[in-house]
């Protein structure tokens, strides 16, 4: 009998404050690591609807103060063992950009901590307090950097005679 691989669909965002370039990360007590804002999609929910719901609830802010780009930056697909089940899982993650119209973020919501973290800090794999950054967050930042490099090459080639 062949096992069917578990599939997990999620939406996450590179969320920043209006006047800051650092990413908003959220501490998960359950997973004991830092994550980009976001979460699992409900059945029948679009990635955009999921992201809009998660960012407003995780930051405890009015949706009017949060702008989520309607077009995703990219989608990631990868296999990894689930922290919850231990089973090999196919992750399908839609990644958005988002801006929060506020001078500061709530540092604690729903018993979870939020923090502003630079891209270089995220890439190091170590978040605030010497704790881990999630695999999904690391993969998303790697993909973002890869896309920036491609755009940079295209821009340089476009201006060359």
How many H/I helical runs?
Answer: 3
Strand content: 35-45%
Class based on secondary structure composition and strand pairing? alpha+beta
Distance from first to last alpha carbon = 60 Å
Strand count, sense and barrel status of the largest sheet are: 8 strands, mixed
Q: Output the radius of gyration.
A: 17 Å
Average pLDDT number: 88
Total of domains: 1
Q: Estimate percent helicity.
A: 25-40%
CATH homologous superfamily?
Answer: Nucleoside Triphosphate Pyrophosphohydrolase
Quaternary structure:
single chain
CATH class category: Alpha Beta
Listing every helix as H and every strand as E from the N terminus to the C terminus, the arrangement reads EEEHEEEEEHH
Looking at CATH, which topology would you report?
A: Nucleoside Triphosphate Pyrophosphohydrolase
Low-confidence stretches: none
What does this structure look like?
By secondary structure, the chain is α+β, with helices and mostly antiparallel strands. The protein has a single domain, classed as Alpha-Beta Complex (Nucleoside Triphosphate Pyrophosphohydrolase), CATH 3.90.79. Helix content is 27%, strand content 36%. It contains three helices and eight strands; from the N terminus they run βββαβββββαα. The protein has helices at 47-59, 119-124, 135-159, and strands at 6-17, 23-28, 33-40, 66-68, 74-81, 88-100, 108-109, 112-117. Strands 1, 2, 3, 4, 5, 6, 7 and 8 form an eight-stranded mixed β-sheet that branches. A hairpin with a 6-residue loop joins β5 and β6 (88-100). The longest helix has 25 residues, at 135-159. The protein is globular, with a radius of gyration of 17 Å. The chain starts with 5 loop residues before the first strand and ends with a helix. 27% of the residues are buried. The mean pLDDT is 88.
């Amino acid at each position: 009998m062949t096992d069917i691989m578990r599939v997990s669909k999620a939406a996450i965002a590179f969320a920043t404050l209006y006047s800051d370039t650092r990413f908003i990360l959220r501490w998960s007590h359950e997973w004991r690591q830092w994550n980009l804002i976001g979460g699992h999609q409900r059945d029948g929910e679009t990635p955009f609807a999921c992201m809009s719901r998660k960012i407003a609830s995780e930051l405890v802010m009015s949706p009017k103060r949060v702008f989520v780009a309607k077009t995703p930056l990219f989608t990631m697909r990868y296999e990894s063992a689930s922290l919850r089940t231990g089973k090999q899982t196919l992750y399908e993650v839609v990644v958005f950009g988002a801006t929060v119209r506020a001078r500061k973020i709530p540092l604690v919501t729903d018993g979870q901590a939020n923090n502003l973290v630079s891209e270089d800090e995220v890439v190091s794999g170590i978040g605030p307090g010497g704790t881990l950054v999630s695999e999904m967050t690391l993969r998303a930042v790697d993909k973002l950097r890869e896309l920036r490099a491609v755009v940079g090459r295209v821009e340089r080639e476009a201006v060359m005679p």
